[in-house]
Amino acid sequence: MNPAALKVNNLSVWFETGAGRLSVVDQISFSINAGDATGLVGESGCGKTMTSMAILGLLPASGVNVSSDGIEINGRDISTLNPAQRRAVLGRDIAMVFQQPATALDPVFTMGQQISAVYRRHTGDSKQQVRKKMLDALERVGFSQAEDIAASYPHELSGGMRQLAMIAMATVCKPAVIIADEPTTALDNSTRALILEQLKRLQKQNQTAILFVSHDLSVVRQLCRDVMVMYCGRLLEVTDCQSLFANARHPYSAGLLSCIPQISDKRPAPVKSIPGQIPTPADLPSGCHFAPRCSRVEAHCRTTVPELDYANGRGVACFRPL
Amino acid sequence: MSMPEKVNRPPLLEIRDLSLSFHQHRQLAVDRVSLNIAAGRTLGLVGASGAGKSSVARAILRLVEPDLGEILFKGENIYRMNPQDLKTTRQRIQLVFQDPSVSLSPRRTVEQTLLEPLQHFAIGDADHQLKKARQILQTVGLDQGALQRYPHQFSSGQQQRIAIARALVTNPDLLIADEAVSSLDVSIQAQILQLIQKLQKDFGISILFISHDLAVIRQIADDVAVMYQGQVLEQCPADQFFSEPAHPYSRYLLSFAQGKTPINRSGDKWYLERGRRSASNTSNCVFAGFCQEKMGLCDKLEPAMHDIQLKKQHALGPHCVKCHLYDEVKVNDH
Fold first, then answer.
1. ipTM beyond cut 0.85
2. Alpha carbon separation from A202 to A162, A223, A317, B237 (Å, rounded)
3. What is the largest CA-CA distance in chain A?
4. Which residues of B touch A252 (CB under 8 A)?
5. Nearest neighbour of A261 by CB, restricted to B158, B215, B269
6. How close is the nearest chain B Cα to the Cα of A218, in Å?
7. In angstroms, rounded to a whole number, what is the distance separating the alpha carbons of residues B268 and B141?
8. Is the minimum CB–CB distance between B254 and chain A shorter than 8 Å?
9. How far is it, in rounded angstroms, from Cα B161 to Cα B191?
10. Shortest CA distance to B185 belongs to which of B206, B158, B205, B225?
11. A179 pLDDT exceeds 90?
12. pLDDT, tens digit, for every residue of B151-184?
């Protein structure tokens, strides 16, 4: 059997402060096979972005601590690489699509220059060859007039076009893994549908593994087969989207689902919300982090941490699952 | 081309044939828009980015001067008001923006933020103002300890609650929420939607709720208006809109929102690579270029706004559509 395209083992991220250790990602493990898309879902501040940055090794060397038992891309551990080796991997084997293309792109270079730079960095191809690959990448994400887009500066493109151009940049070297961090959050419905469709197509064409980070389960369902629900740096439920939507087992997952407004002929009942808010890393409750907001909480939950328990391919970290 | 309307009490806000352009009339942002907002009701204004939704909101507060048209608030034209009346009117219309981290001043405490509108409009004495600020904070679900803190000390959901409190502190009749939940997490979004619904029930305010998200509009709106390239293409009660959307563009939006595959392969990119309409080009239907149900007429003649419900019984309210498909419903309009 082939090794998973992306395999993360016991990844933790924490800060050492005067007040002690602030844990933001707590021993999470998962793997994604080639051609699969997995969603990482949770509220703002739950550690989703920290997880993606830690996988890529983009967190600053000082101030924040990262530990893991290995982060493997197609069986090769990238967690121990030095900066020079890492630069050779980023963009070629694993690439990231950021949430805000307006700030992630460089305003003083054209899209063509920026996409070419990535490709040139990883290959020794001739100028013509680089240009051809760059235009290919733009066409692959659905631009009919790739030449025009290549000659445009980021500010000349709309939000949706910038996001597509950034996806072109991330996929120009056909990496094995793409991490997409909230790539559709700032976009309207129709543009979002287009971006998701292009991601889906690239995933099929190149057999790319996608880690799709989002707070919105309804978006995750459109792209991903599997989903991981994260809360306060821990994975609470790991399953496939279909099962999660049909029957969420962790009370937090169920809460997230009930927040999604639905479109129906009759005016729907008001959306439910999860009472309270996500605690900060500085005052995490002991035991299950979700216990103070949970409707099914019992004394046991407040003292003991539930392990992510796998049964029938579904992982649930809860003493009283639904 | 004013909106056909049922004869009952006059709407709280009435927009008549509003046009607004930028860049020396080269770009038409709002094109002869007519909308009504009834007292105590919520109008959901939907459309893709750049459709002109926010420009309408700005025009209502007279933050921009329109080219043509009028806006009547309680029967009085906002654009004919003297400065004193305008100030009083603005006290009755308040705005909540999309991103609370930008719309709240980082250098003011919550107390200062909440007191400012009261001081500006000289509502009550200092004691009364402070009492009012405390009270409104409780209404939006924050505790009194919040008063002395700064916006950065709150989460985004709490910040949006503060922004809503600031808007409500003057007891407005109309609240304009411009993508007020769009930048929030779904879980926080649910809390804020609940809050807005509760406030409307408690205070009976009217709401103009602007959003690109039809699912959110479904939750909150009594009536829906769809904008595209500066024009309103359809306006009707929400139940009607979601069960029988009439305009091809509305159906297109709705199928996207329900996660269905786009209908039109070749038209996939129209919203990305579209050009801005110039003010002079008004001889066709704005949606003709991308419409699945286009007819010969659509390129030549701009459709008129029709009430297609005139002949139906048990109507919830007028169902106005700007599309040649419904020309036969009202004979001899053109």
1. no
2. 17, 12, 33, 41
3. 67
4. none
5. B215
6. 9
7. 43
8. yes
9. 10
10. B158
11. yes
12. 998 888 889 999 999 999 999 999 999 989 888 8
Phi-psi region of A314 (alpha: psi -120 to 50; beta: other; left: phi over 0): beta
Are the beta carbons of B188 and A194 separated by less than 8 Å?
Answer: no
Give which of B323, B230, B236 is closest to B284, Cα–Cα: B323
Give, to the nearest 10 degrees, the angle between helix B110-120 and helix B126-139. Answer: 120
3-state secondary structure of A216: coil
* Distance, CA of B170 to CA of A36 (rounded, Å): 53
Element (H, E) at B118: helix B110-120
In this complex, is the C-beta atom of B265 within 8 Å of any C-beta atom belonging to chain A? no
Across the beta sheet with A234-240, the strand order is A94-97, A177-181, A209-214, A37-41, A226-231, A234-240, A314-316, A309-311
Residue ranges of the alpha helices (H) in A123-188? 127-140, 146-150, 159-171
Contacts of A201 (CB under 8 A, 6+ apart): A140
* Residue type, position A91, single letter: G
| Residue among A193, A266, A271 minimizing CB distance to B262 | A193
CA B237 to chain centroid: 14
Q: Best mutation site among B54, B184, B186 for testing chain A: the one with the most A CBs within 10 Å?
A: B186
Query: With an 8 Å Cβ cutoff, are A190 and B193 in contact?
Result: no
The tokens for A271 are: 């959306």
Dihedral sign for Cα A50, A55, A61, A64, please.
positive
pLDDT of B331 above 80:
no
Give the minimum alpha-carbon distance from A141 to chain B in angstroms, rounded to a whole number. Answer: 11
Of A188, A216, A262, the CB nearest to B49: A188
- Chain A, 138 to 177: residues with Cβ < 8 Å from chain B are 142-145, 158-161, 164
Helical spans, DSSP H, in A143-292:
146-150, 159-171, 189-206, 217-223, 241-246, 251-259
- Cβ pair A220, B259 in contact under 8 A: no
At residue A121, the 3 state secondary structure works out as helix
Q: How far apart are CA B159 and CA B167, in angstroms?
A: 13
Residue of chain A minimizing CA distance to B267: A194
Mutation target to probe the B interface, by most B beta carbons within 10 A, among A41, A258, A263 is A263
Tokens of B149: 């803190």
Task: Give the pLDDT score at B282.
Answer: 61
Q: Identify whether the C-beta of residue B208 lies closer than 8 Å to the C-beta of residue B200.
A: no
Residues A322 and A315: their CA atoms lie apart, in Å, by: 13
Q: What is the pLDDT of residues B19-36, one digit of tens each?
A: 998 877 777 889 999 999
Residues A33-51: tens digit of each pLDDT: 999 999 999 888 889 989 9
d(CA B2, CA B92): 25
Instruction: Measure the CA–CA gap between B288 and B284, rounded to whole angstroms.
Output: 7
Using the Cβ of A283 and the Cβ atoms of chain B, whether some distance falls under 8 Å is answered with no
Q: How many CB atoms lie within 10 A of CB A297?
A: 17
Rounded Cα distance, B12 and B212, in Å: 24
Query: Do B197 and A270 lie within an 8 Å CB cutoff?
Result: yes
pTM, two decimals, is 0.83
